[in-house]
Every structure is written in C-alpha cells, then in structure tokens.
Amino acid sequence: MSDIPFSNPGWAGNTGEFDLTEKEVRGDDFVGDRPKDGGHPSGAGTMPYMLVDKDPDAPLFEGEYRQRFEKILTRYPDKRAALLPVLSLAQELRGHVSAESMDEVAGLLELSPAYVRGVTTFYTMYNKRAVGRYLVQVCTNISCNLCGADEVLQAFLRYTDAEMGETSKDGNFTVIEAECLAACGFPTCVQINSRYYENVTPADVAQIIEHLKPEGES
Ligand code: FES
Known about the structure:
Elements: H1 22-26, H2 63-74, H3 83-94, H4 99-109, H5 113-122, E1 134-139, H6 142-146, H7 149-160, E2 173-178, E3 190-192, E4 195-197, H8 202-212
Parallel strand pairs: 1-2
Antiparallel strand pairs: 1-3, 3-4
C-alpha cells in the first residue's frame, strides 16, 4: 500500500510540506497489515483497526487473538476497564460487533449484556452490522463540507456503486458519512478502514477506488 500511484499518499503526515515516508510516520508496526500479535505491547488492542479480510464467524478469541486478549487484561485493574479495547479486538477480527458478539464479550469480561450493549452502541467506531472489505467514511462536517465534502461523498457512492450506508454488490465497499475526523486542516478527509486520506477531491476518487479493488476486478 505504500506505493500509491496518485498524489494523495493515504496516510496522515505527508501533506506536501514534509517529505516523510509512511514508515517514518507510522513506524514499522503500522506499515502494511498490523501484525496479528498486536505488534508493540501497547498496541495489543487499543486502536480500532480494520482488517480487509474479516471473519464474522471467527471465535472470540483463539490463538494470537487469545494472546492479545490476555495481554489487554493485564493492562487494566479489572475486566470492566478492558471493555473498549476488547470490543475493538472483536471488531478487528469479525469486522463488526453484532449483538451476539456483544453478549460474548459480556461473558468474557463477566459484565451484563445490557452494560456491554450500552457502551457499544454509544460509540460510532463500532460497526453494529457487517460492512464491506473497505469501510469508506467521508467527513461531511463543517471544514470538509465547506471544501466540497458532499461532492466527494457522491463520487464515492457513484464509483463504488453503493447506496449510502449499504455495502456494494461486490462486497468491497460500504460508504458512510462521518462526523469530524480531526483532520480539519486537510479537507476533505476520508477514512478507509484504518487509513486516512486527506485533501481528497472528487477527481481523486476513481483512482482511490481502483487502487483498493482486489486484483482482477475493475
Ligand atoms: S471537519 Fe472534516 S476532519 Fe474535521
């Protein structure tokens, strides 16, 4: 993903003022796919991270994911405090946090299902239903909106052939509007899975989509 053949490199850091590589900005752990073991210990489950290939039926948690789950628990005084990173881990693995996943997490952390549902539904970064391989979140808040975010959003809908909030027929893309993504200086900001694309214009959208499509699809 680092050799992106268009002007927007797709990650925060190189906005034209600085000539930094992705590796210099993110560090080794965050170039390409995040290591399944969580990489640096502090990264075991603290950041929502969306894998391209999700497995909605994957068990919570086995193998490397069990190790990361255990690692997360060691960082908090009690299980309840680990809820957010554990939900993030479940979403990384399954792609979304269904009602069943919420109940499973409640069981793992010895919390009531109602408490876990209340927390999960409060945060928009937890997908409550399945999304495509790529979740495209277009910021349409004030700074981006003033700079043409609506046109960018329409371009993503057009090029992915998806309805707003729905997944495209090929399963590749789900396009939604997002509130401020905290990159107001680089409008329009678009988050695709865990990656930020800044200064996006409608003219960039076709190339971004083509770059993301699996090889052989067009
Ligand atoms: S308004 Fe779009 S990132 Fe803040």
